[in-house]
């Protein structure tokens, strides 16, 4: 199993390109199930989760064409000037609406096939994703919404079975804001009869990106980006070409890495438009941030000031950036209070950061982080995607060598992480 070896102390400087967003690309790929015509996606990040999703779609009978892009110097896909992959999906041959456990267990976003399959194929059998490191993550709201749209849904032997000859429009109020729940129901409603209204909808930019693509495919979705989304069902969708939006969490992660190391970086192919809460907090740490149309530059002070955060659905501070902010607070001046309100078990990185010398106390959903003058390198274990990113940031500033084990989590969500860090001057190596 690969590990990441980091020699701490290098200041990150220079420029890298941000990849397409994992959390936008995954639902987008599922949207292709809704039509018999080919759909092409560009700027698709080269990630393990994307590979898993494509494998899942392929075993359902979808034809997958993946054109790997090379960077400016003609080298590996997903390098420092990544153009992303181009993926064309042809679901005209969809004949097996099944998502088996062995694929779903490695990637919770696989539940996103449920809505499109019922809408297009009239049935779906999708393994329940089960719990994971950050929390239980049930899918009851996905089921509640499909049931309201007239699907017969049962959960047996660890699988959700859903059937509907044709879904019908419904008014759905989700009990909590759910991102993939909103996406699943929005996709399903596109082929339903009549109007569906999703209230308490997620407002995340990835939901808007999906709605934009669905509309390009002939859907009639309005209100995405607000908490009420209206979908007028249509009889069929057609093919389209869509560029995946930039990854705002990857962007935020590199901004944090640069901030922690006292660096000066420019991130291209991205935008500060979806990162207000994160950028606001980074400015509170003392960083200077300049936003350009398609780029962001961050210059860090010699030492950061601690900042408190509270995670909540968009446009508030994203839970997917909480771990990275714990890492920067671990070496900042002062004490920060970090409150996690989305997932019940998303402090797994704290114990590993403590092993590197951080001063962190946890009380329920709140972490108290007292900045220390320095961290010391050690061997640590990655437990989930963003926890792993926080350990990378800590390793970059720690004295000596840090070895991060189980980096398959990072490969799920960060395209060419080691290459991008090396391009910014980090001393990082992937070792077997
Ligand atoms: C692929 C993708 O886009 N993943 C993102 C998505 O995950 P995901 O869509 O799985 O997260 P949700 O927004 O659904 O989860 C929010 C909260 O609602 C709960 N819940 C959700 C659905 C449901 O049916 N029942 C229920 O109880 C969850 O357990 C969690 O406590 O949004 C999360 C919250 O911004 C991000 O951390 C993930 O990176
Ligand atoms: C939790 C995340 O992803 P997923 O929903 O795919 O597990 C994430 O991107 O931080």
UniProtKB/TrEMBL annotation:
Recorded catalytic activity of this chain's protein: phosphoenolpyruvate + UDP-N-acetyl-alpha-D-glucosamine = UDP-N-acetyl-3-O-(1-carboxyvinyl)-alpha-D-glucosamine + phosphate
Any one Pfam family match given in the protein's UniProt record, by short name: EPSP_synthase
The protein's enzyme class: transferase
Protein keywords: Cell cycle, Cell division, Cell shape, Cell wall biogenesis/degradation, Cytoplasm, Peptidoglycan synthesis, Pyruvate, Transferase
Binding site for UDP-N-acetyl-alpha-D-glucosamine: 108, 137-141, 320, 342
Keyword presence, Cell wall biogenesis/degradation: yes
Family indicated by similarity: Belongs to the EPSP synthase family. MurA subfamily.
HAMAP family the UniProt entry points to: MurA
Protein purpose: Cell wall formation. Adds enolpyruvyl to UDP-N-acetylglucosamine.
Classification of source organism: Bacteria, Pseudomonadati, Pseudomonadota, Betaproteobacteria, Nitrosomonadales
Residues modified to 2-(S-cysteinyl)pyruvic acid O-phosphothioketal: 132
A GO cellular component annotation in the UniProt record: cytoplasm
Pathway involvement of the protein, from the record: Cell wall biogenesis; peptidoglycan biosynthesis
Catalytic residue list: 132
Originating species: Rugosibacter aromaticivorans
Protein name: UDP-N-acetylglucosamine 1-carboxyvinyltransferase
Cell compartment(s), UniProt: Cytoplasm
Residues reported to bind phosphoenolpyruvate: 22-23
CDD domains hit by this protein: UdpNAET
EC code(s) of this entry: 2.5.1.7
Domain Enolpyruvate transferase, first and last residues per copy: 8-421
GO-annotated biological processes: cell division; cell wall organization; peptidoglycan biosynthetic process; regulation of cell shape; UDP-N-acetylgalactosamine biosynthetic process
Any GO molecular function: UDP-N-acetylglucosamine 1-carboxyvinyltransferase activity
């Amino acid at each position: 199993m690969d590990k990441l070896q980091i020699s701490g102390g290098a200041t990150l400087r220079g420029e890298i390109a941000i990849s397409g967003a994992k959390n936008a690309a995954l639902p987008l790929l599922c949207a292709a199930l809704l039509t018999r015509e080919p759909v092409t996606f560009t700027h698709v990040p080269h990630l393990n989760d994307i590979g898993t999703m494509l494998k899942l779609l392929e075993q359902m009978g979808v034809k997958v064409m993946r054109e790997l892009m090379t960077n400016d110097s003609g080298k590996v896909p997903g390098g420092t000037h990544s153009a992303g992959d181009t993926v064309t999906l042809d679901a005209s041959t969809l004949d097996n609406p099944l998502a088996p456990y062995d694929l779903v267990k490695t990637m919770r976003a696989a539940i996103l096939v449920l809505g499109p399959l019922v809408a297009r194929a009239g049935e779906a059998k999708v393994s329940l994703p089960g719990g994971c490191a950050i929390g239980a993550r049930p899918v009851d709201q996905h089921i509640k919404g499909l049931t309201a749209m007239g699907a017969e849904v049962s959960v047996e032997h660890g699988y959700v079975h859903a059937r509907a000859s044709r879904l019908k429009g419904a008014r759905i109020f989700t009990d909590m804001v759910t991102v993939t729940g909103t996406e699943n129901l929005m996709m399903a409603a596109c082929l339903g009869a009549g109007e569906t209204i999703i209230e308490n909808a997620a407002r995340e930019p990835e939901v808007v990106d999906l709605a934009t693509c669905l509309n390009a495919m002939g859907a009639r979705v309005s209100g995405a980006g607000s908490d009420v989304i209206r979908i007028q069902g249509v009889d069929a969708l057609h093919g389209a070409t869509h560029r995946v939006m930039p990854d705002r969490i990857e962007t935020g992660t590199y901004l944090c890495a640069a901030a922690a190391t006292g660096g000066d970086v420019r991130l291209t192919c991205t935008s500060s438009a979806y990162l207000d809460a994160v950028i606001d907090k980074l400015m509170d740490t003392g960083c200077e941030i300049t936003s350009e149309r398609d780029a962001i530059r961050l210059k860090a002070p010699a030492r950061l000031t601690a900042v408190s955060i509270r995670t909540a659905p968009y446009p508030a501070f994203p839970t997917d950036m909480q771990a990275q902010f714990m890492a920067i607070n671990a070496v900042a001046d002062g004490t920060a209070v970090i409150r996690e309100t989305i997932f019940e078990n998303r402090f797994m990185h704290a114990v590993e950061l403590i092993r590197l010398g951080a001063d962190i106390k946890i009380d329920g959903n709140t972490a108290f982080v007292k900045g220390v003058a320095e961290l010391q390198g050690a061997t640590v274990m990655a437990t989930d995607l963003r926890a792993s990113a926080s350990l990378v940031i800590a390793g970059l500033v720690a004295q000596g060598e840090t070895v991060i084990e189980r980096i398959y989590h990072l490969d799920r969500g960060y395209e060419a992480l080691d290459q991008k860090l090396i391009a910014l001057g980090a001393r990082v190596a992937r070792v077997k």
